[in-house]
Amino acid sequence: MQLALESNVFFWAIEYIATFCCGLLGGLCAVKKKYDFIAILMTVWLTGLGGGIIRDVLLGIFPPVGVSDKGLVITSLLASVTVAIIYPEVDRLKWIMVALDALALGLYAVNGTQKALIYHTSGMTAVFMGLITAIGGGLIRDILINDVPSVIRDSHWYAVPALIGSVLTVFVTRAYQGGHIPFSLEVTFDIAIVAFVVILRVLSVRFDWKVPGAIRRHHTYLPLPVKDDEDEKTDNR
After folding, report:
1. Based on C-alpha coordinates, what's the Rg of the chain?
2. In angstroms, rounded to a whole number, what is the distance separating the alpha carbons of residues 197 and 126?
3. Less CB within 10 Å around the terminal CB: N or C of the chain?
4. What is d(CA 19, CA 50) in angstroms, rounded to the nearest whole number?
């Protein structure tokens, strides 16, 4: 079975663009840390392809895509050179970069989930593989440059859209594998899922939608400890 998005030349091209833009974002973080070009190159490569590397290693696919796909590796190299030269301009393109990052998030979530299902994983495992493909690169990047991972630091919807996209992809891919929908309809559904992930991510940043934290509590309701006889004698003294 082929991956639906990889069978479409248009989305195959977008995947390279997404890898390039993710690399730019990762490289920009390294530039702000005033790292040298080798550090920028490593950060760009791991940001753009780190999620796919983790996914392939967990699925037992060797060598992983991050070192076996020449096109993606060259794309990472080009992103490194680009961000090292035009980083001030990249830093100012906030909304364009947010939209492209969201596009990469959706593409990686769908693609990672489908790839896991091709290797006969369960639906739950496939969801985790899609999620790690989508957010793994940024996670590695932040750990590498000694930052709190953005998936933890940024409370806007990031992992949530990727998780929703992965779950929806499981249902669509299972329907195709079971012969309930044709391949063309699966591609259409996959495109819709990617668009849905992009919309959720961009809207969460635009309207400041955040994932809620722990419930605020002002009182605790715990039973008082029961004192034994020896404690009571000690207190009386």
Report:
1. 22
2. 17
3. C
4. 10
Which residues pair with residue 156 across a beta bridge? 210
Kindly indicate the confidence band of residue 154, based on its pLDDT and cuts at 50, 70 and 90.
confident
pLDDT band at 221 (very low <50, low <70, confident <90, very high): confident
Structural tokens at position 78:
């080009």
Cis peptide preceding 88, ω within 30 of 0 = no
- The pLDDT > 90 percentage for the chain reads 60
Above 60 in pLDDT, residue 121?
A: yes
Residue type, 81: V
Closest CA to 132 of 226, 227, 55: 55
Q: Give the DSSP letter string of 195-224.
A: HHHHHHHHHHHHTT-B---SPP-S----PP
